[in-house]
Amino acid sequence: GGFAFALGDVAGKGPPAALLAAVLQGILTGQAYSAVEPFEVMTRINNALLARGVESRFATAFYGHLSPEGVLTYCNAGHNPPLVFGADGVRRLEVGGMIVGLIPFATYEQDKVQLSPGDVVVVFSDGVSEATNAAGEEFEEFRIREVVEPLRTASIQDVQAALLRSVRNFSQGLTQSDDITVLVVGYRPQSPASS
Question: What single string gives the DSSP state of each residue in 32-45?
Fold first, then answer.
């Protein structure tokens, strides 16, 4: 009855990084259908990556599970802290541990956040916050907040489109060195059917 979502960012470029991304996606997909807690998912991913001898094996990852009641249980393994936009302000989702694929027996923690109807979770790659313009300035987290806060009650598609458009406008067509990925999740519970 819940909804799981994840975003990862692998180290490196080219075939080794692509192989790592495929492995990471496969492991995440396998875990999403089991009743495994987010911190356990990260532990299993870490162990699986360490067991593989691929050249590029490090990644940041964020994994969350949202219950129908609005409880977001998450683990952040070295990823940019996602932001939760709500009526009470903005919260960062930082609890977790280090990047996956680096250290054997790394430990991971998880946290639970109660979302309210209308809250929006924005998960993004470092290519968003580190997008640069011609002057060498980075987009940074404060600009993400400036774009999303006034759109909190808009559709998640509009929030995502506005953020990507803002990054494009900021970078003024300058080629970026990293991927620009944004995942937006809105908590919009269904109202009970009237009898």
Answer: HTTT--HHHHHHHH
Helix (H, G, I), strand (E, B) or coil at 7: strand
Residue 159 contacts residue 84 (beta carbons within 8 Å): no
Q: Which of 128, 131, 121 is nearest to 71 (CA)?
A: 121
Per-position DSSP letters for 35-87, written without gaps between them: T--HHHHHHHHHHHHHHS--S---EEEEEEEE-TTSEEEEEEEBPPPPEEEET
Residues in the chain: 195
| Alpha helices in 74-131, H assignment, sequence order | 126-129
If we measure between CA atoms, which residue out of 159, 127, 161 comes closest to residue 145?
A: 159
Q: Which residues contact residue 140 at a Cβ distance below 8 angstroms, ignoring those fewer than 6 apart? A: 129
- Rounded Cα gap, residues 155 and 26, in angstroms: 30
Note whether 107 and 97 are within 8 A (CB): yes
Mean pLDDT of 58-75: 95
Q: Given pLDDT bands bounded at 50, 70 and 90, which one contains residue 195?
A: very low
CA distance 96 to 107: 8
Give, for 162, the enclosing helix (H) or strand (E): helix 156-171
CA distance 99 to 60: 5
